[in-house]
């Protein structure tokens, strides 16, 4: 049986429906196939739109299958064909079913149709009920024509139920969404520009049960306006028919929404808020709507010559300030695991008794400035742009790092007095998707802000492209408050350039100088209103030198431990550990001489004499600085000879021994592991991992390799493994084994533990069993449990794999998860190719999943009969 590369046993692959004239419909891996041996002779053209390589065989991708049904001994299949780069049209196949005696050898037609629709729709809901609101005045004014000619035929072919309203005046969509009977619909659909989705969200927000309405009624969009950002982000296209197909096959997805208070009003924003150049180019070009999206570019060029600045006072709650950290945040949340966790969290819906909109955490614009906030004047800003989506129009991905439900807005600011050609380059970088890395652009992740325009009587403020009264306003984000129909559960934008290629983020932006100071300029003076101890210190590689001081390193590690334990509800004796670590004598250093450990690290080249390396006869340890050590008794971590000769304080040794129990080598407690995996702690965990990276950079730069630094590295490795963050644990393991274990002796158990993780990572994540066995030999690892894991992988032995999982600790289990799907896929392939039926308990043991999980997550299409699973039925002789 053929298997898809994504690791799932595809339902119904190989099912055959026999048709009249010896034709066959076959469910393939990714397509529905028609096999007609007489097609090249008969000249029939029922499937001509899809005929490609061979006229005797045609296929329809499952994503293009719209509907299938049986009637009068015929099967009818509605599907979409890509008529051009700009248009998708519906088409139809109709075939008579076979009636000869041999037809009983194929799949029963009812089962075939049911399986076909299951493959075609997957997690999407078929036959959606849509409340369609058409704005005939959107953009160039062709919405009704586009609906009738391009969109409605596809929806009708997919058997969607449609209730259509053509809007007559502005604000009508607010009233309709506010008063609609939501139980009758699966989505409220805007056939318009971005203004009508804005009205729909605000109509839902005006309902008495606003939170429930927003969390249960998905909004969708057919692009018929100028910007069409909603469709570009969620469907990857501004073409109406492409958006229609994406909606038909789309899934309900949680999305962040923003509350904006202006005067006494509170409105909901799904797209953006802007003041300055962009707002003027949007709202000041209403008379050019006939130009479509090109009106924005015309407006920008017209205004760039003026070098106009828009002075305002700003207070902002910055969550992520550096561009490199923004990329790291994007990389973390772009993983499928994170998306699944966010979706699971959001699917819980509003809390019991949650009727109206969420309470504003920071109040409204009419309230006093929140405690800790400070208004900072800005005089040179030309563009203030806060966004909740990546694309603002088809060619304008302003917010490359935007995520659909990370609970953060993206803030872009650009000075207004840039030289003309520099400003033009910034504009061109938008379309080229290079704006994020442009050195003249600041890019931050924020959760709230207050802005007060000044020195001008009137101007433009744009909220989701709609004009708002000119004056002060305040905004804050609500994570996953809204629901939308999306193509894939995320935004379709590609993300910042090279976000997935390196764990060391670099970008063309001003570097921090000594003392973590940004270059002079008003934006460089902006700091988070609440100083986070972990974020207050930058990366040493970016110019922040504070973590090069041993005292600061130990203080910073204290902050990391405190933050980690703060979100672990049951972390053992955390209070005594924190008290002990706070009492750490930061003047104490480990005076142990840099003696080589008896086991060579990976990559170590033995001496030419071939003599065995021992603690007594080892050659000098590698010196990354390239300089001879003047005093062999001085450790790389020593700040001075006097410090190196001091004795180890008992408080240091005792505290570090206590710290080993925070995450023991056997694995964390159940409650601690639950806290690490809790989606509510995602940001806190990310902060801790980023802080550990900063600390490791400081330790590497100072060549520190004492008891403190080793324990800090071990804690970092253990936590990063539990968080499944190889960008953190893999380089940490390499440095610990190749250098720190060489400079400072480590106990056998710790060397074997870390080398074991190194070996399992090579085998399970990097799929390199050869390297894993070399690591086993280099470090003389003799651990029967780990040997079982390697043997199971080497022989694809799924039974041994499950036994090994039962005996492994939680760190090893996390590393084994990297290979779990491959072993499960292999297991299912073995059963599928070798068995007619199997006992359910044995199948669940061999795959490590319950039957319902196999059906849901692995799309297993076998049949369950009590305690027996029927894989395939024997053909009758």
From TrEMBL:
Pfam families: DAGK_cat (PF00781), DUF7493 (PF24321). This is Sphingosine kinase. The keyword Nucleotide-binding does not apply. One of its GO terms (biological process) is sphingosine biosynthetic process. InterPro entries: ATP-NAD_kinase_N (IPR017438), Diacylglycerol_kinase_cat_dom (IPR001206), DUF7493 (IPR055916), Lipid_Phosphate_FormReg (IPR050187), NAD/diacylglycerol_kinase_sf (IPR016064). GO terms for molecular function: lipid kinase activity; phosphotransferase activity, alcohol group as acceptor. Residues 606-618, 638-647 have a biased composition (Low complexity). Residues 125-264 form the DAGKc domain. Residues 492-545, 588-647 are annotated as: Disordered. Keywords: Kinase, Transferase.
């Amino acid at each position: 049986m053929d298997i898809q590369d994504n690791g799932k046993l595809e339902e119904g692959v190989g099912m055959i429906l026999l048709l009249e004239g010896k034709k066959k419909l076959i469910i393939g891996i990714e397509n529905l196939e028609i096999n007609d041996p007489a097609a090249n002779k008969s000249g029939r053209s029922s499937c001509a739109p899809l005929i490609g390589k061979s006229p005797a065989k045609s296929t329809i991708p499952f994503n293009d299958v719209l509907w299938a049904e049986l009637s009068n001994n015929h099967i009818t299949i509605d599907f979409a064909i890509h008529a051009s780069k700009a248009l998708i049209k519906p088409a139809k196949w109709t075939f008579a079913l076979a009636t000869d005696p041999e037809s009983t050898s194929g799949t029963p037609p009812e089962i075939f149709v049911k399986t076909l629709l299951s493959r075609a729709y997957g997690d999407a809901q078929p036959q959606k009920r849509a409340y369609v609101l058409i704005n005939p005045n959107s953009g160039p004014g062709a919405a009704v024509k586009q609906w009738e000619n391009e969109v409605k035929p596809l929806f009708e072919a997919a058997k969607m139920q449609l209730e259509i309203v053509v809007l007559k005046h502005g604000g009508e969509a607010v009233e309709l969404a506010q008063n609609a009977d939501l139980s009758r619909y699966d989505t409220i659909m805007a056939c318009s520009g971005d203004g009508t989705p804005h009205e729909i969200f605000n109509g839902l927000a005006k309902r008495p049960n606003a939170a429930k309405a927003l969390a249960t009624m998905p909004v969708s969009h057919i692009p018929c306006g100028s910007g069409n950002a909603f469709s570009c982000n969620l469907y990857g296209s501004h073409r109406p028919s492409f958006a229609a197909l994406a909606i038909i096959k789309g899934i309900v997805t949680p999305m962040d929404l923003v509350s904006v208070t202006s005067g006494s009003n509170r409105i909901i924003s799904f797209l953006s808020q802007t003041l300055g150049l962009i707002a003027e180019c949007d709202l000041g070009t209403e008379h050019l709507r006939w130009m479509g999206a090109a009106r924005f570019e015309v407006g920008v060029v017209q205004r760039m010559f003026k070098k106009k600045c828009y002075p305002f006072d700003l207070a902002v709650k910055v969550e992520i300030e550096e561009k490199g950290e923004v990329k790291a945040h994007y990389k973390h949340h772009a993983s499928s695991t994170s998306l699944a966790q966010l979706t699971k969290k959001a699917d819980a819906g509003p809390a019991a008794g949650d009727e109206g909109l969420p309470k504003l955490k920071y109040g409204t614009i009419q309230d006093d400035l929140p405690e800790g906030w400070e208004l900072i004047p800005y005089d040179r800003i030309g563009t203030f742009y806060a966004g909740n989506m990546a694309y603002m129009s088809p060619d304008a991905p302003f917010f490359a790092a935007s995520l659909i439900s990370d609970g953060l807005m993206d803030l872009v600011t650009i000075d207004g007095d840039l030289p003309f050609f520099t400003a033009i380059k910034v504009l061109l970088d938008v379309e080229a998707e290079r704006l994020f890395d442009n050195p003249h652009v600041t890019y931050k992740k924020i959760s709230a802000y207050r802005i007060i325009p000044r020195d001008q009587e009137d101007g433009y403020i744009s909220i989701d492209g709609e004009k708002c009264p000119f004056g002060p306003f305040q905004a804050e984000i609500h994570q996953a408050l809204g629901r939308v129909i999306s193509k894939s559960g995320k935004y379709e934008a590609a993300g910042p350039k090279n976000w997935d290629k390196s764990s060391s983020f670099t970008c063309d932006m001003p570097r921090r100088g000594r003392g973590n100071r940004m270059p002079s300029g008003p934006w460089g003076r902006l700091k988070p209103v609440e100083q986070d101890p972990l974020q207050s210190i930058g990366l040493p590689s970016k110019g922040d030198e504070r973590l090069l001081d041993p005292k600061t390193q130990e203080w910073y590690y204290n902050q990391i431990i405190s933050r980690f334990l703060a979100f672990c509800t049951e972390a053992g004796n955390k209070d005594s550990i924190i008290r002990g670590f706070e009492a750490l004598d930061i003047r104490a250093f480990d005076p142990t001489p840099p003696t080589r450990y008896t086991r060579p690290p990976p990559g170590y080249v033995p001496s030419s004499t071939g003599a065995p390396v021992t603690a007594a006869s080892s050659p000098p340890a590698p010196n990354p600085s390239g300089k001879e050590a003047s005093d062999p008794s001085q450790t790389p971590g020593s700040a001075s000879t006097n410090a190196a000769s001091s004795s180890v304080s008992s408080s240091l040794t005792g505290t570090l021994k206590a710290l080993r129990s925070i995450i023991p080598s056997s694995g964390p407690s159940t409650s601690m592991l639950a806290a690490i995996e809790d989606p509510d702690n995602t940001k806190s965990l990310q902060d801790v991992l980023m802080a550990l990276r900063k600390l490791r950079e400081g330790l590497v730069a100072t060549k520190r390799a004492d008891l403190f630094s080793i324990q800090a590295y071990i804690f970092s490795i253990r936590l990063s493994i539990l968080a499944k963050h190889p960008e953190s644990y893999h380089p940490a393991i390499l440095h610990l084994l190749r250098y720190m274990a060489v400079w400072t002796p480590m106990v056998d158990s710790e060397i074997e533990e870390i080398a074991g993780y190194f070996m399992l990572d090579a085998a399970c994540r990097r799929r390199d069993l050869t390297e894993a066995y070399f690591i086993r030999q280099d470090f003389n690892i003799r651990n029967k449990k780990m040997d079982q894991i390697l043997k199971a992988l080497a022989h694809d032995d799924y039974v041994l794999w499950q036994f090994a999982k039962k005996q492994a600790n939680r760190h090893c289990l996390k590393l084994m998860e990297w290979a779990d799907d491959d072993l499960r896929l292999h297991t299912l392939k073995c059963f599928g190719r070798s068995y007619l039926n199997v006992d359910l308990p044995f199948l669940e043991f061999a795959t490590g999943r319950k039957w319902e999980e196999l059906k849901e997550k692995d799309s297993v299409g076998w049949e369950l009969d009590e305690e027996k699973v029927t894989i395939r039925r024997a053909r009758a002789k």
